[in-house]
């Protein structure tokens, strides 16, 4: 299951959100200073993460969570860092779940939590998460592809065909990633 394209898209989207937040934070006032500091922590964390400096990124995201415990971006990125370092995904899952408490339809957290559940053998839980992620982000072909693989694995050939057809419609090149015996009718 490939998350590299999704990861780049998330970082780009987060950067846009951050840029908008910085613009709003520059309007003046003491609460604006706090908002600006939060934006700076998020930006520093994202920059460190992109550079592979996970220790610095983690420090910035944790500091941000002290100021704003419900920041879904900080929780998500801490989850991503943990997912790259933790084989069973326990800490990553906790962080993704915390992000989802703030925004239950946050597709990146749903997607990555589904990956963890799949890796841990919870196919039913992963299918539910992929379906929620597909509803939240209906243009993500990888979500549909992964959903199709799991549905096929669990014996739901009709559901798998539907998911694969949606994935191919979103990204025709994705057809080459579907094994011949799983190609939709």
Can you characterise this structure?
By secondary structure, the chain is an all-alpha fold. It is 75% helix and 0% strand. It contains nine helices and no strands. It has helices at residues 4-25, 30-50, 54-67, 72-85, 90-102, 107-119, 123-136, 141-153, 157-170. The two termini are 22 Å apart.
Descriptive keywords:
9 helices; 185 residues; mainly alpha
Strand percentage lies at under 5%
Order of helices and strands: HHHHHHHHH
- What is the residue-averaged pLDDT? 86
Q: State Rg.
A: 18 Å
Q: Spans of 5+ residues with little confidence (pLDDT < 50)?
A: 1-30
SSE layout and pairings?
Layout lengths: L3 H22 L4 H21 L3 H14 L4 H14 L4 H13 L4 H13 L3 H14 L4 H13 L3 H14 L15
Helix pairs in contact: 1-2, 2-3, 2-4, 3-4, 4-5, 4-6, 5-6, 6-7, 7-8, 8-9
Concise summary:
The protein has helices spanning 4-25, 30-50, 54-67, 72-85, 90-102, 107-119, 123-136, 141-153, 157-170.
């Amino acid at each position: 299951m490939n998350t590299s394209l999704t990861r780049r898209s998330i970082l780009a989207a987060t950067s846009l959100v951050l840029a908008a937040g910085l613009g709003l934070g520059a309007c003046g006032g003491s609460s604006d200073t706090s908002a600006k500091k939060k934006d700076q922590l998020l930006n520093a964390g994202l920059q460190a993460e992109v550079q592979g400096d996970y220790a610095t990124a983690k420090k910035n995201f944790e500091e941000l969570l002290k100021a704003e415990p419900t920041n879904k971006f900080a929780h998500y990125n801490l989850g991503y860092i943990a997912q790259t370092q933790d084989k069973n995904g326990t800490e990553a899952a906790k962080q993704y779940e915390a992000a989802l408490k703030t925004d239950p339809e946050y597709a990146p957290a749903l997607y990555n939590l589904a990956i963890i559940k799949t890796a841990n053998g919870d196919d039913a839980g992963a299918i539910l998460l992929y379906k929620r992620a597909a509803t939240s982000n209906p243009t993500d072909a990888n979500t549909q592809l992964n959903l199709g693989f799991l549905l096929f694995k669990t014996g739901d050939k009709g559901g798998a065909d539907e998911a694969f057809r949606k994935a191919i419609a979103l990204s025709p090149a994705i057809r080459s990633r579907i094994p011949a015996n799983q190609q939709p009718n």
